[in-house]
Design brief:
This protein is an alpha/beta fold and 329 residues long. The chain has helices at 10-25, 37-51, 63-72, 81-89, 99-112, 129-141, 169-182, 195-198, 200-212, 227-236, 257-262, 273-292, 305-312, 314-328, and strands at 55-59, 77-79, 117-120, 146-150, 187-192, 218-221, 242-245, 267-270. It has an eight-stranded parallel barrel with strand order 1-2-3-4-5-6-7-8, surrounded by nine helices. It is globular, with a radius of gyration of 23 Å.
């Protein structure tokens, strides 16, 4: 009689490895009672608002930089629409990106981080309120803790560039109401680009409607040029957390945290700071390799291999593989 065939241990090894790597990543299991990303973001936001110690939110254009930000100690990260367009599609932030483009980045980020993410959804990714409901639902299911949606027309522009156009207040209120219907626990932030177009008083009136009629949890006033403007927003919207966007080379000065706290800011966003630094470093490396015919001279600009490993906890993965292999024997 033929000897019984030995069952392969590969499936068991793969299952063991998956379980161990899941622990490495700290991923939330389905059906877990752990706090949702939306609840985490809301708690951080309200703590910052009540203590007058603004929450700093840094942009992460990759899962890797998201992990780095978390390791350094940031409590929230940001997925920028401009970052998705620039870093991962190589196109301008002019409404070119779609829902699925952003969802890919959000899923990659939330799989390997535990801090909540604020996500830019432009004008909602669709002309219909049903598109907006779907966008918010998909973002929350992908692990996002908060989204911000703006009051520009669908053919949107960068918030710090000229020739922006905004929709009527009532249309933005309808967008926000659709977002509220689509969310479970996610924080809904209303962004207004109207300050540069209609002036301060109109922008404040819009934000009051966005909160009182639209149901927005917090406000993002874009392209503010003076601290006194933020003070006016905070006085007109007591109890409503406000975000300051400190994007470099734009219309807004790069104020310090205490200056922003003094005028009622609860959230401070640095959307593309790391990306711009990475871009400059990459350019220097490429030029050095081209000029010198070697990468030796630009090695000093780089993270050491072991530093990169530390960011992603590489050694824990290797240990997981070794443990899985040992169990399979």
């Amino acid at each position: 009689a033929a000897a019984p065939r030995r069952r392969s241990s590969a499936p068991h090894a793969a299952a063991a490895a998956a379980m161990i790597v899941g622990r490495v990543l700290g991923r939330r299991a389905f059906g877990s009672a752990r706090e949702s990303a939306g609840a985490k973001f809301r708690k951080l936001m309200m703590e910052a608002h009540n203590t007058k110690r603004p929450l700093q939110i840094v942009g992460a254009t990759s899962a890797y930089t998201g992990r780095m930000a978390q390791n350094i100690g940031f409590q929230a990260v940001y997925v920028s629409g401009g970052g998705v367009a620039l870093a991962n599609l190589g196109v301008p932030d002019l409404g070119v990106t779609g829902l699925d483009d952003v969802l890919v980045d959000v899923r990659r980020l939330t799989r390997v981080t535990t801090v909540p993410a604020l996500v830019d959804i432009d004008t909602g990714f669709g002309a219909s309120i049903f598109n907006i409901e779907r966008t918010v639902r998909d973002m929350e299911q992908a692990g996002a803790g908060a989204i911000h949606m703006e009051d520009q027309v669908s053919a949107k522009r960068c918030g710090h560039r000229p020739n922006k156009q905004v929709v009527p207040t009532g249309e933005m209120v309808s967008r926000l109401q659709a977002a509220i219907r689509g969310r479970h626990e996610m924080v809904i932030m209303a962004r207004t680009d109207s300050l540069a177009i209609e002036g301060l008083d109109s922008a404040i009136d819009r934000c009051k409607a966005y909160v009182n009629d639209g149901g927005a949890d917090c406000i993002f006033a874009e392209a503010v040029t003076d601290l006194a403007q933020f003070k006016k927003f905070s006085e007109a919207l007591p109890g409503v957390p406000l975000l300051a966007n400190l994007t470099e080379f734009g219309q807004t000065p790069l104020w310090k945290l205490d200056e922003l706290a003094d005028v009622g800011i609860s959230l401070v966003l640095y959307p593309l700071s790391a990306f711009r630094a990475q871009s400059r470093a990459a350019e220097a490396v490429f030029k050095g390799i081209m000029a010198d015919g070697t990468n030796k001279e630009v090695e000093k600009l780089m993270h050491h291999r072991m530093t990169t490993y530390e960011v992603i906890d590489y050694m824990a993965y290797e240990r997981a593989m070794d443990e899985a292999a040992a169990k399979a024997k």
